[in-house]
């Protein structure tokens, strides 16, 4: 049997945590032959609720779970951790400006970055889910001294999956038939769902441009808000699912002839300022991702890219003092 790996989940007492933890514990994320030790991290006030989650994990008698660490102490929480899904974040309260949200979360991710740097396994792979996830990841990675920067990523896989569903529905095919689409940019309403190279059932597929601009792109960009309206709560199961997909693909790779979307430190590709945490189309092989190069960018898409780049530059400027 393989030795266990340690998987940390922050915000473990929250709603995404509740949909995510049990699936990780069952082996869905890392495979049915990979034992796990769960590191469940939340704030002090949430420890009683987290203890309830721990009891439920115990009561599932999962064959792959070799241990559970439930804590509000991040030094303990990140000790020797191999994978971290950073879900916990401060939500946007009524009347709170985006700038305030960035600052509040900036404090959280600065601190978490220090704990990861000082305690985690040097091969840790991190996905930031808590919003604003791209800039939270930038702040976090800035605290890291001796773990490769490319190990710090943010999640746009939910947006990717949402786009895939809308396109499959439009074309009357299964979601798994849709390939070569990607999300560029920020996980925010400026995100850019790119479909100019899309294939369906391995054939080039096109949809009319009016539908793309008036229906498809706004639907994907606003899907989170639609779910909040319907559920009175933000998307949780689909977000947890996407976080697992992100890690699974990072570990197992993309399929030949397809790519996925991950927000990663920009290397300057597609004119994106270096270092921004920016979602790109990526292929993954042997645990390493690379940006898909040379995709044709139409003037329409360039206009959208410019907007999402500007938004991320503005976010970086708003928390510049935390990057010193
Ligand atoms: P929730 O409010 O149900 O749970 C959040 C949990 O995080 C709470 O238990 C809270 O105590 C904990 N927490 C807050 N700060 C923490 C810290 N510093 N350390 C550890 N735990 C901390 O929220 P939910 O619905 O689970 O969402 C979590 C985050 O995920 C939100 O920021 C949300 O905006 C984001 N999200 C991101 C998506 C994406 O596509 N990137 C999609 C959906 C949600």
Spell out the blueprint of helices and strands:
Layout: E1 5-10, H1 15-25, E2 36-41, H2 47-60, E3 65-71, H3 74-77, E4 83-86, H4 98-119, E5 125-128, H5 133-142, E6 152-154, H6 157-171, E7 178-179, E8 182-184, E9 192-194, E10 199-200, E11 203-204, H7 209-231, H8 237-252, E12 260-265, E13 277-285, E14 288-291, H9 299-318
Parallel strand pairs: 1-2, 1-4, 2-3, 4-5, 5-6
Antiparallel strand pairs: 7-10, 8-9, 10-11, 12-13, 13-14
The chain binds 1,4-dihydronicotinamide adenine dinucleotide.
Question: How many helices in DSSP terms?
Answer: 9
How large is the radius of gyration? Answer: 19 Å
* Major beta-sheet overview: 6 strands, parallel
* Fraction in helix: 40-55%
Class from secondary-structure proportions: alpha/beta
* Percent of sequence in beta strands: 15-25%
Order of helices and strands: EHEHEHEHEHEHEEEEEHHEEEH
**Tally of extended strands?**
14
- Average pLDDT across residues? 96
**Low-confidence regions:** none
Ligand types: 1,4-dihydronicotinamide adenine dinucleotide
Distance between the termini: 45 Å
Quaternary status of these chains? Answer: single chain
Principal-axis shape equals globular
State the strand order across the main sheet: 3-2-1-4-5-6
Summarize the structure in words.
The chain has about 325 residues and is α/β, with parallel strands linked by helices. It contains nine helices and 14 strands. It has helices spanning about 15-25, 45-60, 75, 100-120, 135-140, 155-170, 210-230, 235-250, 300-320; strands at about 5-10, 35-40, 65-70, 85, 125-130, 150-155, 180, 180-185, 190-195, 200, 205, 260-265, 275-285, 290. It has a six-stranded parallel sheet. β1, α1 and β2 (about 35-40) form a beta-alpha-beta unit. α1 packs across α8, α4 crosses α5 and α6 crosses α7. The longest helix has 23 residues, at about 210-230. It is globular, with a radius of gyration of 19 Å. About 45% of the residues are buried. The mean pLDDT is about 95. The chain binds 1,4-dihydronicotinamide adenine dinucleotide. The site of 1,4-dihydronicotinamide adenine dinucleotide (NAI) has 28 residues, from α1. 1,4-dihydronicotinamide adenine dinucleotide binds near residues 15 and 187.
